[in-house]
Design goal:
The structure holds two protein chains of two kinds.
Chain A (H helix, E strand, L loop, with lengths): L22 H8 L10 E2 L19 H13 L11 H13 L7 H12 L38
Chain B lengths: L10 E8 L15 E5 L2 E7 L8 H15 L5 E2 L4 E3 L2 H10 L2 H10 L3 E10 L1 H11 L1 H11 L7 H31 L4 E6 L7 E8 L3 H15 L3 E9 L10 H4 L5
Antiparallel strand pairs in B: 1-3, 1-4, 1-5, 2-3, 6-8, 6-9, 7-8
Helix pairs in contact in B: 4-6, 5-6, 6-7
Classes of the chains: A mainly alpha, B alpha+beta.
Chain lengths: ~160, ~260
Amino acid sequence: MTVATQSQSRGRGYLERPAPSSLADVIETILDKGLVIDAYVRVSLVGIELLTIDARIVIASVDTYLRFAEAANRLDINETGNSQGLPELLEGMTESGAKGKTSGALEGAKDKFEQMFGSDDSDDDKSGGEDGEDSGDDSNGQQRPRRRKRPQPAR
Amino acid sequence: MTSEGRPTGLVHVYGVVRHPADLRVDEAGLGPVRDVSRGDLAALCSDVESEPLGRRRELKAHADVLAQVCQQAVVIPMTFGTVLVDDDAVRRELLERFADHLGGELDRLATVLQFNLRLVPDEDALLRDVLAESADLRRLSRAIQGLPAGQGHAERLRLGEAMAHGFRDVAHRLGDLAVRTLAAEAVDLRVEEAGGPEGVTRAALLVQRSDTASFLDAAGALAERLSGRVVCRLVGPLPPFAFIAAPEAAMASAAAG
């Protein structure tokens, strides 16, 4: 979708910058976005191509659980493919994020951000340990964002 | 002009710019792109050659034209499917009726561009993190491996469910920090999806035009940092699609005629 993306430089090689962008990118960009006025003739939309956006795989299914259980057995954490541990990664990003430029307008951004991710870090959401009343051994003191309020898929 | 059917006489509007504007639009559009002006506003339009609208090519054309225009001028994008009966209706029902709102939005958004960020996690990498963080799950996994084939279905499900929860939790934490990091380079943002079912996070970020280079550097650094765990995709620059205010009273009084 973008035109002038040729002038990339400075170690942005890891960043995917599609040009032209995919239909999914376009749909994400324009669907239900932009100025809406009430006085125009609404031309009916072809439905088929828009359906792609709803084709989401719900992760909480028996098949997924079995696949993830298999993955747990397959992934040898000793030959870790992750070059850096998660706690170090998250820690480093927190620091670099805090160093960013701040302007008055950013407050608006922060508010919206916190509505979505939650700013209150009370850790009431156990992850990874359904069975774990006693699974406190791995707590790393990392702030854990609260799960968002959007409806979760049924188990 | 790729005429697919009889002309409908209808006019599709991409967006509104200040008039006069010196624009060069090479993108194909839904048809040749022209402007319809009134006062100091101009609507960028194409004739609608066939109905209904909504095919892949047309969706892309709408986005492509606006993406090109936003690099040359401040533009208020219309939602896809904004079609009026003729040029005169574009002047009256859009440019005249919403003149104050359009002018206000053009001023408010004069110095910014939108970028769309999409973070797609690598399943194995995040599951490794989940295991690394939980001794319980490692124990459970090893216990299951020791079982004879065909046994331990319930345990497998329990492990898999916990892994799935852990996956989403890690995806959510990474998405949280990624968006937080880039928010420091932005003036506004909309989080469209935060660690969704597949762990995907999507956000639209509003960036000062003058800060574009440093924003892209920050995004590049973020992508490098997350590489191996998360693929970062950035689409833009775009017009501020996700940040357009709805016109207030005009919506209520549907005096369309």
